[in-house]
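Priority: low. Protein: ATP phosphoribosyltransferase. Input follows.
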Amino acid sequence: MINIALPKGRLGNKVYNLFEQIGYESSEMKEDNRKLIFENKEKNIRFLLVKPSDVGVYVEKGSADIGVVGRDILLEENPDVYELMDLGFGKCRFSIAGPMDFKENFDRPLVVATKYLNVAKKYFDSINRDVELIKLNGSIEIAPILGLSDVIMDIVETGTTLKENNLKILTNIEDISARFVANKSSYRFKNKKIKEIVNKIKEIL
Ligand code: PRP
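Result:
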């Protein structure tokens, strides 16, 4: 049995479609239900629907043999997994954004709201900028509007959320896309099956 961790939401749906195209479908998946585990007994696979930020944990610990996760999560959580393939979709970028009239005050730490504390710390350390990091779990764009932070560090895909909240990109930090990852011991012991899946996906990408 191969356990596959899929991120719930937009990215997960795209990834599931890929698996369907290579013949690893699960009819239950199409039903309107709240199930989180879907099997295809014939093909000996099981899909696990998890929060995007948890995919790395499931794969590192071996609850899932393989999974798909955004590079943003890999950079933030740094799970001990093999990164086997860049799927080339789920493209976005890490950016610093702030109000249209933002002017940086270098006499004090910059207050940054973000979901990505580790990535933010690493980036601001690399440019020797003192910061106060505020951890939020979503709707980050609200923080500078309310004066909770000076700027945000977040992922930007289309830029619509920034635009509709009167924010602009100040600095682009890094490009991001979806990555196919594998548990290290599964990659050894279920190598044939995992490679077969990777190769089939490569063929249709
Ligand atoms: C993400 C991200 C931005 C938005 C960017 O949020 O945190 O808010 O998408 O996308 P855009 O550039 O296409 O507008 P998500 O939708 O995951 O919701 P969240 O606020 O709960 O994190």
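The first strand starts at residue 2 and ends at 7. Residues 92-176 form a domain with the D-Maltodextrin-Binding Protein; domain 2 fold (CATH 3.40.190.10).
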